[in-house]
Structures are given as C-alpha cells and as structure tokens.
Amino acid sequence: MERRTLQGLKDKLMHPDLVRAFITEYQRALREANTQDAMARKTHMRRLDAVRKEIDNMVDAIAKGMFHDSMKARMDRLEAERKDLETRISALPAPAPIVLHPGLADIYARKVTDLERVAFNRFCILRP
User: Fold this and answer.
1) Is the pLDDT of residue 121 over 80?
2) Domain map of the chain by residue range?
3) Among residues 10, 75, 98, 109, which one has the fewest Cβ atoms lying within 10 Å of its Cβ?
4) What angle, 0 to 180 degrees and rounded to 10, lies between the N-to-C axes of helices 69-91 and 16-63?
C-alpha cells in the first residue's frame, strides 16, 4: 500500500515535470503581480509628491499674505487627494520576497525517491 501510494505521488500526482511547470508559472505570476504593484506604487508616489509640493507652495503663499477664497477650496481638494493617495499606497502589498527555488522539482523528486527507499526497506524489515 505504501509503495503504491509513493509510486502514485512520484509518477502521477507530483511528476517533476508538473512541479517544474507549476514553479515556472507561479514565479511568472508573482513577477507580474509585483510589477503591477510597483508601477501603481510609483505612479501614486509621483502624484503624492506633486500634491505635497502644491500644498507646500500654497502654505508658503498664505504665509506671505496671499489668500483668496478659492485657495481654501483648492487646499481642501489637495488634502483629500493626499489622504486618498496615502491610503492607496499603504494598501498596496509589499513586494513578495518569496520565490520558489528553481530546482525544487528535482529536490522533490529526490525526496520522494528517498522516501520510497526508506519505506521499502522498512517494509522488508517488518515483513516476516
């Protein structure tokens, strides 16, 4: 029974070629997701820098005595946009540092072979 189970794992369910294909696709999807998140982060950060600069310029203008009613409405919009951008940036996931080892399929194949050998030896020892 153990031998057939191990053989099924080895030959069918987790064939090294299938594991290799899974790893390749997983890494591709992870790179794509990280790229999209990085692009969004960069875009949001660039806009946030511009919004902060506009806010600073407006505060400087007010400090120098310039004030118009339209400045209040503009400042309110800028502050709302700043908060929105900060929220969006903080909601983006951190880049995923987890990458599957490229030789994982081969490592798996060796482990299953080792497990099969141990189980077979155990079966031979326990068998009268």
Assistant:
1) no
2) 2-126
3) 98
4) 160
User: φ, ψ for residue 68 (rounded to 5)?
Assistant: -130, 155
Provide CB contacts within 8 A for 81, sequence distance 6+.
47, 51
Q: Which pair of tokens denotes residue 23?
A: 């790893």
Write the DSSP symbol of residue 13. I
Widest distance between CA atoms in the chain: 100
In contact, 3 and 119? CB cutoff 8 Å: yes
Q: Closest Cα partner for 61 from 45, 80, 74?
A: 74
- Greater model confidence, 76 or 109: 76
Dist CA 54 CA 62 (whole Å) = 12
Phi and psi, residue 16, nearest 5°: -55, -35
